[in-house]
Amino acid sequence: PARAHAAPLQYAITPTYSRPVQKAELTRLANTLRQVARLHWILVEDAAARSELVSRFVAAAGLPCTHLHVPTPRRYKRPGLPRATEQRNAGLAWLRQRHQHLPPPQPGVLFFADDDNTYSLELFHEMRTTRKVSVWPVGLVGGRRYERPVVENGKVVGWYTGWRADRPFAVDMAGFAVSLQVILSHPKAVFKRRGSQPGMQESDFLKQITTVEELEPKANNCTKVLVWHTRTEKVNLANEPKYHLDTVNIEV
């Protein structure tokens, strides 16, 4: 039997989609996650089937990984609509299915690790002690150097943000973690497709499972930036040939 004081398993749900930088982004993220003890990566492709590129990548990544896929319906692929909803929900469904027949308590912590973020390893230590929902600052997001929950006497009392400060939870997807127990005890909590605007998905999800008063501030009372929304610059492929291609087929 597992020791009671064994560190809880950490689950990272990462939506991903095919684009020139996909493998580079996944490589960078995997290099971080590989250094975290007791971590399970749930990688969810936006595709009708698993791609060969991602399948090969997962096989060689050297860390516990579940590779899922679910396509975003075409009608939701317009600009101005939230992204990766189906993929995050597929990750949640897999987690619930995996754990539904196991007896409680089931220690575990879930967070949403988009493939364009950069993580300090310190963040994984911080989020391991999440009891319900924990929060922390995120760098380079919302048109600011950072956004963060404002903390007084160990409680979140507001949000330092440059974008829609009226949001119930003005937090980025990279700025919170949820205990597995909370995910399992709220089986209907998912990311909403209808009626959700970009940037409101986090709020719409969190208000199904917690309140602002219950949030647990991490990262030195939300004064340290341990994750950055870095985003890769758009790749210039202007010199990519249409004809006279290379004699070998190389995966990038």
From TrEMBL:
Annotated binding of Mn(2+), by residue: D116
Gene: B3gat2
Any single biological process term in GO: carbohydrate metabolic process
Presence of keyword rRNA-binding: no
Active-site residue numbers: E202
Site feature Interaction with galactose moiety of substrate glycoprotein, where: E147, N239
Annotated protein name in UniProt: Galactosylgalactosylxylosylprotein 3-beta-glucuronosyltransferase
Organism encoding this protein: Crypturellus undulatus
Family assignment from sequence similarity: Belongs to the glycosyltransferase 43 family.
Membrane topology: Single-pass type II membrane protein
Cofactors named for this entry: Mn(2+)
Compartments, record wording: Endomembrane system; Golgi apparatus membrane
InterPro entries: Glyco_trans_43, Nucleotide-diphossugar_trans
Cellular component GO terms held in the UniProt record: Golgi membrane
Gene3D superfamilies given in the database record: Spore Coat Polysaccharide Biosynthesis Protein SpsA, Chain A
Catalytic activity: 3-O-(beta-D-galactosyl-(1->3)-beta-D-galactosyl-(1->4)-beta-D-xylosyl)-L-seryl-[protein] + UDP-alpha-D-glucuronate = 3-O-(beta-D-GlcA-(1->3)-beta-D-Gal-(1->3)-beta-D-Gal-(1->4)-beta-D-Xyl)-L-seryl-[protein] + UDP + H(+)
Domain of life: Eukaryota
Molecular function per GO: galactosylgalactosylxylosylprotein 3-beta-glucuronosyltransferase activity; metal ion binding
Glycosylation sites per record: N221
